[in-house]
Amino acid sequence: FAIHKRQSGRLYIMKTGHGTFRRATLLCSGAGIALVTSLALSAPVMAQDTAAKQADDGVTEVVVTGIRRGIQDAISAKRNSTSIVEAVSAEDIGKLPDQSIAESIARLPGIAAQRTNGRAQSLSVRGLGPDFTVTTLNGREQVSTNDGRGVEFDQYPSELISQVLVYKTPNASMPTQGIAGTADLRTVRPLSFGKQVVALNYRREQNSNDAFIGGSSNTGNRYAVTYIDQFFNKTLGVAIGYASTSSPSQLQKWEAWGYTRNFYGTNNTIIDGAKPEVASSNLDRDGLMAVLEWKPNDRLHMTVDAYHSEFNETQLRSRIEFPLFNPANNSGSSACPTGCAGAAVPPGWDGQTRLVSYTASNGLVNSATFSGIKTVLGNYVTQREATLDNIGWNTRYRLSDNWLLEADLSHAKVDRTDLILETTAGTGLDGSGALDTVTIKQSGQQGATITSALDYTNYSTIFLTDPRGWGGGTQAGYLKNPTIVDELDIIRLAATRTFDNNPLFSKVSFGINRTERSKSKVGNEGTLTLSKAATPVPMSMAVPEQYRRGTTALDFIGIKGMISYDALGMYNDGVYTFRRNVAANAIKNTWAVDETVTTLYFMADINTELLGK
Fold first, then answer.
1. 601 vs 468, which has greater pLDDT?
2. Which three-class secondary structure state does DSSP give residue 567?
3. Of 598, 381, 606, 354, whose CA–CA distance to 481 is shortest?
4. Which H or E run includes 505?
5. Residue 563 in contact with residue 551, Cβ under 8 Å?
6. In this structure, are residues 394 and 303 in contact, taking their beta carbons and an 8 Å threshold?
7. Distance from first CA to last CA of the chain, Å, rounded?
8. Is-contact 161 155, C-beta < 8 A?
9. pLDDT single digits (tens) 500-547
10. pLDDT digits (tens, 9 = 90+) for 551-589
11. Res 424: pLDDT
12. Reported pTM
């Protein structure tokens, strides 16, 4: 019930019924007024959300719209389902409030969103991981853009989804179900919607942080358009929707390599190394939804729906790595002199790095100075491009008043290509170039601040190279470029028999579902060398002028910054030479899975009374 009006001690109460309220007059006592008033406070009603019209019998009808209609539809879906479900419905076409459908689903009880780059991407139902939840679109299982089966929901714009049902209990008529639950995304049905509408929306966003890396942006936009209409005396319905998103995100991260306890027998814990970084990301996504619905009579009902999505995310990262204390040199047998100063101090990394001095408090080194530091600067690019196509055809035919036949065919496919590019720079090749003296100080829970003697923003002293020889002196980067294809074909045939006077069952359903799925991944990874260096390998070279992007600020850790360059542009233009790692590709990162699953099901709905229940 929802309160419509209070006047002179009378309460006008509207009873919900398929979106239409009929007004009735009720005299209430003081206790009744208090009760209904408390209901009103818990679910406020806005006058602009209702539209009144005069019915044929002279009774005023109120049509519910807006947020209250969305809540009413969600409650009705929960009430009418024979399973335990959670539901969220759009208040109007294209008006689910969140950036992706995962944000909306995460508002439901028992469901949490797992985030990537600040946005909700996958779901955890009742504490189980995303792979334990099956996702369907209009009842059909979906392919996935990741390496497993868990669907990444940022592939689905919320503007194109009208309702989501999350089933928390098994249901035999759903052949594909998850152990944790099943999330069913539903697009609009134009004949059920029942009217013509054109919906437009536009949003502008700006990140409170400026773009951390040159060439990135901190502003984005989002817009969508939806058209719904009915023709031929409302026997043919059409719905078309398009949504586009460009959304940036910025990241500052402090990360330690690890810590060594009881170093040199001092009973203190010291940091092994630090690799703070900043990142700028941008997500571009375009989604297209189309529905064609035909119901020429009360017996035949056909629906064809299609969905297409193009997803592109690029993240640029700048990382600076300081190898500090080397736990490999911690034998635990020799004690470090007080203050750890001078040549008596055991060496750290590669016999160069030394712990010059330190102070500790409560067993933790909170300030330390290291000399002989060979710093590694990294410019990384992570890019994902994915295309998702989904089409389904559903036919329902009512053979008689009690028999309903259904056939459903669908095809889904996703093509994904990843590019993970890592490039390194430093003051010179391993064993050459200037060494740094670094002082690191702990700052509570915010990581640490670093004071450096070298300037890492100077393009004339920082070069593309293998600064620590981790790649054998010839490696200036590493590349992973896998491709993945996931394809799914489903056919389902079902029948339902309803009973009018059966004392035990209201209906029985049975059917068969056949799913054919193939998923494959082709790994492609290997090392990068500098093909345009002036010297033979091992090699080192300055960043070419046309690829320089200025500097990336690192003031959040106390350092002025580091050089920034277009690593992807240099790779595309042949500055780097790719050498494929045959073993990694052939053994670890290339695989294929083919499966065929046939499911038979039978389900009876019990509708009877037992012991007064």
1. 601
2. helix
3. 381
4. strand 505-522
5. yes
6. yes
7. 25
8. no
9. 888 899 999 999 999 999 999 998 899 999 876 545 444 788 999 999
10. 999 999 999 999 999 999 999 999 999 988 877 666 678
11. 94
12. 0.80
